[in-house]
Automatic annotation (TrEMBL):
Entry-linked Pfam families: FliMN_C
Keyword Oxidoreductase (UniProt): no
Major location (coarse): membrane
Record organism: Halomonas campaniensis
Ranges where the record places region Disordered: 1-74
Origin organism lineage: Bacteria, Pseudomonadati, Pseudomonadota, Gammaproteobacteria, Oceanospirillales
Family of the protein in this entry: Belongs to the FliN/MopA/SpaO family.
Domain Flagellar motor switch protein FliN-like C-terminal positions: 91-161
Subcellular location: Cell membrane; Bacterial flagellum basal body
Single annotated GO MF: cytoskeletal motor activity
Protein origin, superkingdom: Bacteria
Name of this protein: Flagellar motor switch protein FliN
Keywords of this entry: Bacterial flagellum, Cell membrane, Cell projection, Chemotaxis, Cilium, Flagellar rotation, Flagellum, Membrane
Biased composition (Basic and acidic residues): 22-32
InterPro entries: FliN, FliN-like_C, FliN/MopA/SpaO, FliN_T3SS_HrcQb, SpoA-like_sf
Length: 172
């Protein structure tokens, strides 16, 4: 017979006898694995004790008066607060965002999608002359109109969307 951890060394009868002797010695000391305290039994006993304590009526405690957190919790505002806010804002200035301009949208079936070929026309829900939506990371933030600058398309912002208007636009 061989030890799985050491396949090139055979296990002799002496090794088994030594292991059995160590186990008997541990059993006689009381630190054998079988005699360990069962953590589940301890947890169940603790839970039963907690439930019985909850069942017993406790005297009602008077509510503690509320006290202000004061300087112990919140840092006092300093005169240089605007300076630190500017530094915090500088940290995010180089974060890239995705700007997209949307002409319009439409819904088509998979059959219609598969029938598309070069020269096909897809009708969008946006009307001609209607302002286009400007989206930052998928959120509508403004509307504008298309312009051509040096043979490239651009967009002129005509209206910035307020937060309340953004909520209304989500429902369309």
């Amino acid at each position: 017979m061989t030890d799985p951890k050491k396949p090139d060394q055979p296990i002799g009868d002496d090794d088994w006898a030594d292991a059995m002797f160590e186990q008997e010695k541990a059993d006689s000391r009381g630190d054998a694995p079988g005699e360990e305290e069962d953590p589940w039994a301890a947890a169940m006993a603790e839970q039963a004790a907690a439930e019985s304590a909850d069942a017993a009526p406790e005297p009602a405690e008077a509510p503690k008066p509320a006290r202000a957190a004061g300087d112990s919790v919140f840092r006092p505002l300093e005169q240089g607060g605007s300076l630190s806010a500017a530094r915090d804002l500088e940290m995010i200035m180089d974060i890239p965002v995705k700007l997209a301009v949307e002409l319009g949208r439409t819904r088509i079936t998979i059959k219609q999608l598969l029938e598309l070929a070069q020269g096909s026309v897809i009708e969008l829900d946006g009307l001609a002359g209607e302002p286009m939506d400007i989206l930052i990371n998928g959120y509508l933030i403004a509307q504008g109109e298309v312009v051509v600058v040096e043979d490239k398309y651009g967009i002129r912002i005509t209206e910035i969307i307020t937060p309340s208007e953004r909520v209304q636009k989500l429902n369309r």
